[in-house]
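debug: dumping io for the single-chain case to check the tokenizer round-trip. Nothing else runs in this session.
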Amino acid sequence: MTYRVIQWATGFTARKAVQAMAERPDYEIVAGFVYDAAKAGRDLGEICETRKLGVAVTNDRQKIIDTEADCVLFLASAEMDLASSLRDVCDLLASGKNVTATSTQFVYPKGISAEFEGDIAAACKRGGTTFHGLGVMPGFVSEGVALMMTRLSRRIDQMSAYESLVYDKYPSHFQMFDCMGFGYEPDDPTPMFTNLEFVGHVWRPSAVLLAEAAGIKIDEAQCFRDVVVADHDFEVASGFIRKGTVAAMNFGVRIISEGRPVIVMQHYTRMDPNLAPDWPRGEGWTLVFEGVPSMSVKINVGIHDEDHTDQGCWTAAMNAVHAVPYVIDAKPGILSLADVPPVWGTDAFRRVK
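debug: decoded output
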């Protein structure tokens, strides 16, 4: 079977998804959407640094909605304008195309609000289509791997999941500075992540999904953000970090049940690997289960000194690419990570010519 795919957006991770699909004969990219009018008309393969695909990208939203396809890989940064992204996703679904989205807000729509979930469910019903949100963490490790690990437990007192990455080579100024708040004064309210409700948009959907799948009563979802400032000036791929501005942070959510934290999901990130020495280190993702038995699972990425940001984005891209077949085959509606059928990346074992 050939999967007809529309690529929505061409950012850092999206380009990797296009590169991977260009290598696979069962994926046919039929259209590409870009936000930047200057890119319109260019070949999608050229933009994504792979072979020419004969697909001229467009910034004409309606043209994409009118294009026939089996699935849309919606790899836009919904953080910039969640309302517009929701509208785009719903219109795509209502037009008869399945949608897989990687922004954290889409991992479990119910975790944002009942209205958010309802809009997506209604669009699926109108189009007879399936919506699926995923990622890496959130979107894979803290949901799929964590749920699999619960099969080994007699009792779980607390499950903690955290990501630890150094973002000095991540090139997006918007994501790193305007969104997360690196390079700003600690008390500057300008960055999105200074709003704890926005932090909740990142981690709450994932934590709520895990809690509901495990049958945990949720009393409260507590959001938090802690920062560490730079002790010197330095340059990173996304901009300039001045001494005294935010250069490391830890943010996440705690699910409180019966008066105690049962699930903790958080992200430790630095612009300098020497900052915040008391915080966990490593380049990847960790799960810790306190209970019987006590267990930890560590997944490292870029184990041969590769660029950790680049390698991490490959994991997100491939999770989205490998989701296409099962999303197309799923029954209409919202497909959560707790309901995904067993899926293996068997195509990764072949040699790329």
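debug: round-trip ok. DSSP finds nine helices and 14 strands in the chain.
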